[in-house]
């Protein structure tokens, strides 16, 4: 199977088979536009992806290489109902900084299933938490003044009018 070389932003070179690299729509399009000869030492620079993240992406891509590409794109479009597989959940267990870098790289390389799974992981970190818990999880400083916080509390307590009361029972 033909091999290509991917160069990370910090200069490290990774060799991988073309089918694994094609998990990235960006690389797949590049290879279609500029066909690779079997004996070629094709080097694709990836200036927005460092070696740590590229290594993780290649691990993920090798695991998902056999996935049907068309089916994956359809699944990625249905991200509302998407479930993270146990393998992906384990793979995406990493520190927040690395996870966010992985999200940026998956977006840059156009790998929708990895992007969706990583974003779902972040969404699960937020789901069901209070604003203060979210701030603690993501190390966000509270920039609301006490009066702004009181206003937020009052707005949260005001019940929303039900459509039936606004428009009557039609």
TrEMBL record:
Choose any GO biological process term that the UniProt entry carries and state it: protein ubiquitination
Entries under SUPFAM superfamilies matching the protein: POZ domain, Skp1 dimerisation domain-like
Q: Where is the SKP1 component POZ domain?
A: 2-65
The SKP1 component dimerisation domain, residue ranges = 113-150
Tell me where on the tree of life, at the top rank, the source sits: Eukaryota
UniProt xrefs under CDD domains: BTB_POZ_SKP1 (cd18322)
InterPro entries linked to this entry: SKP1 (IPR016897), SKP1-like (IPR001232), SKP1-like_dim_sf (IPR036296), SKP1/BTB/POZ_sf (IPR011333), Skp1_comp_dimer (IPR016072), Skp1_comp_POZ (IPR016073)
Instruction: Kindly tell me the pathway this chain contributes to.
Output: Protein modification; protein ubiquitination
Report the Gene3D superfamilies cross-referenced here: Potassium Channel Kv1.1, Chain A (3.30.710.10)
Keywords of the record, alphabetical order, are:
Ubl conjugation pathway
What family does the database annotate?
A: Belongs to the SKP1 family.
This one is known as GD25046
């Amino acid at each position: 199977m033909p091999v290509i070389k991917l160069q990370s932003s910090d200069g490290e070179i990774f060799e991988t088979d073309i089918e694994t690299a094609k998990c990235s729509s960006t690389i797949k399009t590049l290879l279609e536009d500029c066909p690779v000869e079997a004996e070629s030492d094709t080097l694709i620079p990836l200036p927005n992806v460092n070696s740590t993240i590229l290594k993780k992406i290649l691990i993920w891509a090798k695991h998902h290489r056999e996935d049907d590409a068309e089916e994956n794109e359809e699944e990625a479009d249905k991200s509302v109902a998407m479930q993270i597989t146990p393998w992906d959940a384990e793979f995406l267990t990493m520190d927040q900084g690395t996870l966010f870098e992985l999200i940026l790289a998956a977006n840059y390389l156009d790998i929708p299933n990895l992007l969706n799974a990583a974003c779902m992981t972040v969404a699960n970190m937020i789901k069901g938490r209070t604003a203060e818990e979210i701030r603690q999880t993501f190390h966000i400083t509270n920039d609301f003044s006490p009066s702004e916080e009181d206003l937020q509390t009052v707005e949260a307590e005001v019940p929303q009018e039900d459509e039936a009361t606004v428009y009557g029972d039609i």
